[in-house]
Design goal:
The protein is an alpha+beta fold. Helices cover 41% and strands 18% of the residues.
Length: 584
């Protein structure tokens, strides 16, 4: 019983000596300090998060740059990377002629490249490659293979045989890549019409450039051209032989459908192989049918007669004094073989009189002459799809002197394609149809423009036929096909005047004259007559025979029926109609 108070006393002392509660010992602003420490912690955590994001972003950026650097090292320099997607390049459409012959197609080939870092011996590798690829430059390739680059083109577009030969060498550091290649099965034939592409399948010339958008439409759809390769072959063969015989610097030949404007054949010599365009010189790649301009000479007399008849300043019975040279602008215009007498319009045409043509042009006047030639599209680039179509060279001043010289094809330079299209208008009853490289469907409506009256066109066509029967174009006759045409012989311009020893000789023709369907032009640049003759290589002597041979070859191909007409009797009828005063 005595112990109870003792326990109670101890208990009371124990409670009294215990430490005070912590809450009572904390400062009054402790909760504020805790909040500040919490904010600082969150800010530090947020900063660390941002730094992590920035670090990851930088790492990703460097990874992308490193990947791009590796890609560039593997794919080579920028100029070796195709500008078109590979799939699009593979889908470039084929080119066909009007009969379905393939003119251009795309094949899958293998190209050889090297990683110099993996090549054991640069010199030995180059020498061994040269044994199977003879065109490899051993010195240059050795230098490339010994460089620090990671990608070097060795040879692109190998043939299967070449690829297998390289593969058999077993050389380290060499690899193959599949690439599309544009291939031209007909080689040089129609090379200027077809054109070519670069390695990236961009059209650079000819139809490849003219129709690049359609060929690269993505669906691989082919494009057909108006060219007939059978016609092209014969024009090429005749023109090549003629150029060789007369040692001409160049030559061109064109065949055109006068009713539709379709170009059936277009040859320019010298030519090139579109499979290897870089091996050709600029002169060989030049399309002289469309890209070159010439002073066409007396072929322009057909247009002079036409404008005189159109403007009614002359008729077929009109006569002009050709007894003496024509004086104009301080110059004296003479004839090569002057008749030295009064000449009728048909005689001026068949004798190719510069004097008579000049008189007719002066009566017409410069304004009417310029307007008529403009209607024939001779004062602008020929309206054909080819980007190579050239602008003409025109006189700065079109006064009386220019009017006279242009009347016989001097003082103005035009392209052969523009010239033949103008002649086609005469053959097409006076309606001009633009030349085209696209085929025209049988039921397609052709939009032409009348540039002369029908009767004028028929009269000029009759004069052209008479010129072949009994004038300067006699060598162009193809028996049974009634060729009509006009010769052209022009001195080439030189410093200080014209060089009479350098000629542009041509012949522009239409056949058959009784139902005109096709126009032909043949032009030779600086032909030379075979020795020992000293005759001038005029259009009638060198170009007209080529036209006659071409007509004889292609007329059956084109389905032109032979005529049983007697050329001598026909000539008499033409003379009676055009020159009745000469009939006894």
């Amino acid at each position: 019983m005595r112990l109870w108070p003792f326990r109670k006393q101890i208990s009371s002392e124990t409670r009294t000596l215990a430490p005070p509660p912590l809450a009572e010992a904390a400062p009054a602003d402790m909760s504020r300090l805790l909040r500040i420490e919490s904010d600082e912690t969150r800010a530090m955590d947020a900063s660390r998060g941002r730094l992590r994001v920035m670090g990851l972003s930088l790492a990703l950026g460097f990874a992308i740059l490193a990947g791009r650097a590796i890609e560039v090292a593997i794919t080579g320099p920028a100029d070796a990377v195709p500008t078109r997607p590979v799939a699009e390049a593979h889908n470039r459409g084929d080119l066909f002629d009007r009969t379905g012959q393939v003119l251009a197609t795309t094949l899958e080939t293998h190209s050889l490249y090297a990683d110099p870092a993996l090549v054991w011996d640069a010199a030995e590798t180059a020498e061994m490659l040269a044994t199977v690829l003879p065109e490899v430059d051993v010195v240059a390739l050795t230098e490339s293979l010994g460089s620090r680059r990671r990608f070097v083109w060795v040879r692109r577009n190998l043939t299967p045989r070449q690829r297998q030969a390289v593969f058999a060498l077993g050389l380290p550091g060499l690899e193959f890549r599949t690439e599309p290649r544009r291939v031209y099965p007909r080689g040089r034939l129609a090379s200027h019409v077809v054109g070519y592409t670069n390695r990236d399948m961009d059209g650079l010339a000819g139809a490849e450039r003219a129709f690049d958008g359609a060929l690269m439409s993505g669906d691989g759809r082919p494009v057909a051209l108006s060219i007939d390769m059978a016609v092209q072959f014969h024009v090429d063969e005749v023109l090549r032989a003629t150029m060789t015989e007369y040692r001409a610097l160049a030559a061109t030949g064109i065949v055109m459908n006068v009713r539709t404007g379709e170009i059936l054949g277009m040859v320019s010599l010298p030519d090139f192989d579109p499979n290897r365009p870089s091996d050709a010189s600029p002169g060989e790649r030049l399309n002289r049918a469309a890209q070159s301009v010439y002073e066409m000479g007396s072929t322009f007399k057909a247009f002079t007669v036409a404008v005189a008849l159109e403007e009614e300043t002359a008729t077929l019975e009109s006569r002009y004094d050709a007894r003496a040279p024509l004086a104009v602008g301080g110059y004296r215009i003479s004839d090569y073989h002057g008749e030295e007498r009064w000449l009728s319009v048909p005689e001026i045409f068949t004798h190719s009189s510069n004097i008579g043509s000049g008189h007719m042009a002066l009566e017409v006047g410069a304004e009417a002459q310029r307007g008529f030639l403009g209607d024939l599209r001779l004062l602008e680039r020929a309206p054909i799809e080819l980007a190579e179509s050239a602008d003409p060279l025109l006189p700065r001043n079109w006064g009386p002197t220019e009017t006279v010289t242009i009347s016989y094809g001097h003082g103005i330079a035009v392209s052969p394609i523009a010239t033949i299209a103008a002649f086609a208008a005469i053959a097409n009853d006076g309606v001009y149809v633009p030349p085209t490289l696209l085929p025209v469907a049988a039921d397609e409506t052709i939009l032409g423009e009348r540039v002369m009256r029908s009767d004028v066109a028929r009269d000029v066509l009759a004069l052209m036929r008479e010129n072949v029967v009994g004038g300067t174009g006699g060598n162009a006759e193809a028996v049974g096909y009634l060729v009509a045409g006009k010769t052209g012989t022009a001195d080439k311009p030189s410093r200080g005047g014209y060089d009479t020893s350098r000629l542009i000789s041509s012949f522009s023709a239409v056949f058959p004259a009784n139902d005109p369907q096709y126009a032909i032009l043949v032009l030779l640049d600086e032909p030379q007559m075979p020795e020992p003759t000293y005759l001038r290589p005029t259009g009638g002597r060198v170009a007209a025979p080529a036209v006659g041979e071409i007509v004889a070859r292609i007329a059956p191909i084109l389905g032109v029926e032979r005529s049983n007409e007697d050329p001598v009797g026909r000539a008499a009828m033409v003379r009676a109609a055009l020159m009745p005063e000469l009939i006894p």
